[in-house]
Queue: 2 jobs
Job 1
Amino acid sequence: MKNSALVVGSTGIAGSNLAKELVAQGWETYGLSRNPSKPLKGVHQLRGDLLDTDSLEEALSGINPTHVFFTTWMRQENETENIRVNSTLVRNMLDVLSLKRSVAHVALVTGLKHYLGPFESYAKTGNLPETPVREDQGRLTFPNFYYAQEDVVFEAAARDGFTWSVHRPHTIIGEAVGNLMNMGTTLAVYATWCKERGLPMVWPGSREQWSGLSDVTDARILAKQLVWAATTPAAQNQAFNVANGDVFRWNRLWFDIADWFGIAAEGFVETIRPLESAMTGIAEDWTKIVKTHGLKESHLERLISPWHTDLDLGRPLEVVTDMTKSRKLGFTAYQDTRDSFFDLFKSLRTGQIIP
């Protein structure tokens, strides 16, 4: 039987890049989201509400996917609500699909908050893992919606007999509009604003992140690992870290990014200077930039997530990801991190998101 993929959250950074990869590899590909917007070539777009089983049953009528990829989540006011809502959306989908008896594999995308803690306790003193983070490091004692989602998948797998994989990317770099966590586009908008105002890009994070080692995950690399794990027997029923494969220091990359935009930059100077504070009140400026340059997205909130960028860049430790587990099993994809950012910036410019 031909592989048939259902990408849950197909309009986001992870989901849209995964959908493109699946189509390129010849899969029958369905993409589900609440509000399908930009069409993806070769993807059958479905509209459905993950918190409404009737909506899901209607969206999936006559569709029997062999592989399901969860690449979305819904941000709530606190971790208790994150757990309730984000475990429910996974459970609802798997309950609806259970009746079809078609699913052979389910993949879940989570992230390094598995090791660093949920938003409310993220990378706090006393909650700092040994780095590089490895998949065999156990769960933290803090409640975490990633753990709740995993447990739902594990329970459904035991019930329905499918295999599973869990994927833990570092910060995902890729193109998407309306995404909840989007460091690459946030930095592109910030650099664009700095250039228009004649200001330098000011490093918003911690000393440790500025001078320590780091890595990120290109959305295209994540997509390749998701497909690899779904089709590799040795990768079944396991969790995998996923990053580009190189490491870098922000104290060099920050200036490289500023050079790409043709502006000056400032590094760490004794204190954290949050990006969320720096970008507060720039909506009016962005409206003018959009009008001046004929850009396509005037709603700033659909492009930036400075709160999330501040979380990552403000961590009190260097964070790198151990990829040994998947490497030993044959996953060898690699991506230069500078190119991850520069490819994104070029794409945003071509798509008239930035000038």
Note: The mean pLDDT is 95.
Job 2
Amino acid sequence: MTIDSTIDREALPVELVDEQGRAIGACPVSQAHTAPGRLHRAFSVLLFDADGRVLLQQRAAVKTRFPLLWTNTCCGHPAPGRDPADAAVDRLVEELGIYSTLSEVGTFTYRAADPGTGRVEHEWDHVLVGRFDGAPPRPDPAEIADHAWVWPSDLADAMVADPQRYTPWLSGVLGVIESVEVE
């Protein structure tokens, strides 16, 4: 997959959804994240290694929402009508240079305002998990400032000790996978 760095990701369309996750329209990413925020489809990926550690990323400083916070392996928005798992596989390649088969394990809805940028996340989030071992071969610096493999128990402790270091949706992602055994 070739990454086109000239794409304005804020102009790409997202799928608006109702409170049951049914598609009801579309608008650009920037409009969906303008206060008060519009409920739209998103995905969040967690990759685990063979030992059970999870790959986290620190969002790049140039991100328009929650820059420099630590979060799940990868996240994004499927184009209207596109399968979230297919979009997530492509996004993993774009952001990290990783290919992994993904399985959806659940969804959740959240709303969070970023006090630093004034943008709002209001998302119907599909949570997907997969396996990967090793270091990401090509992290995109426009997306990712850093990455780390962490033990889920250490992550839970760190999020309690210093919640401001993490994106507001990460706790919801972890809540969805809490009762799912990753193969």
Note: The chain has a mean pLDDT of 93.
